[in-house]
């Protein structure tokens, strides 16, 4: 679908605008330091994306955004615990698979991708003391799934935002390893300098 067709379709144009606002909230949330503000912005983003997905028949994405929205509300209200987190994962996967089967003629195989994206990331962040590289890698997988889903469903905001998210997550992961490598080199260089100074003293 080209842009002229989008402009001529008020429903799809509205969905584009709403989803772009939602994705902007997700982007802005990444720079927020307070957890409550972060969750409120993410929840608002989930709500707007769910509305946009409802307007355009992206039912698989709609289900996952609604599950994430409800989960975030539980976290905000401080009702969340490990058992409830697992329940939300099972709920998202269960309803997601049902919608995938029911809507297969419309969404085809990529309808399962939002389910995979949400489930794998939710599982990763549940791991105690999970390492930063694993979270970054999980974000890369999640972004890839959502980007392919957006492309397959011909919904450009989802495709574009998640392509950007993938690039940012990949860059962040590379920088993490570069920084760690530099940190590991510093003690060795200090030891060499100390050894040299001892030789000079002798």
List keywords for this structure.
single chain; 202 residues; mainly alpha; 9 helices; 0% strand; disordered C terminus
Account of the protein in words:
- The chain is an all-alpha fold.
- It has one domain (3-176).
- The chain is built from nine helices and no strands.
- The protein has helices at residues 3-7, 10-29, 35-56, 59-76, 82-102, 104-107, 113-126, 132-152, 156-201.
- Residues 197-202 have low confidence and may be disordered.
Strand count, sense and barrel status of the largest sheet are: none
Structural class: mainly alpha
> What would you report as the Rg, rounded to the nearest angstrom?
22 Å
What number of structural domains do the residues give?
1
Kindly state the number of beta strands.
Answer: 0
Task: Please give the oligomerization state of what you see.
Answer: single chain
Order of helices and strands: HHHHHHHHH
Distance between the termini: 78 Å
What percent of residues are in strands? Answer: under 5%
Number of helices: 9
Helix content: over 70%
Mean pLDDT across residues: 85
Overall, the morphology is globular
List low-confidence stretches: 197-202
């Amino acid at each position: 679908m080209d842009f002229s067709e989008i402009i001529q379709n008020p429903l799809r144009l509205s969905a584009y605008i709403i989803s772009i606002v939602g994705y902007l909230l997700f982007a802005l949330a990444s720079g927020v330091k307070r957890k409550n503000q972060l969750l409120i912005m993410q929840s608002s983003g989930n709500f707007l994306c769910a509305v946009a997905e409802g307007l355009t028949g992206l039912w698989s994405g709609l289900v996952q955004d609604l599950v994430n929205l409800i989960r975030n509300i539980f976290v905000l209200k401080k009702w969340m615990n490990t058992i409830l987190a697992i329940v939300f994962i099972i709920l998202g996967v269960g309803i997601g698979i049902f919608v995938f089967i029911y809507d297969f003629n419309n969404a085809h195989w990529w309808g399962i991708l939002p389910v995979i994206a949400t489930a794998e990331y939710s599982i990763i962040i549940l791991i105690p003391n999970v390492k930063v590289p694993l979270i970054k890698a999980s974000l890369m997988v999640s972004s890839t799934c959502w980007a392919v889903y957006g492309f397959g469903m011909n919904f450009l905001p989802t495709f574009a935002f998640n392509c950007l998210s993938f690039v940012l997550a990949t860059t962040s992961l590379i920088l993490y390893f570069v920084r760690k490598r530099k940190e590991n080199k510093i003690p060795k260089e200090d030891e060499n300098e100390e050894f040299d100074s001892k030789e000079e003293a002798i």
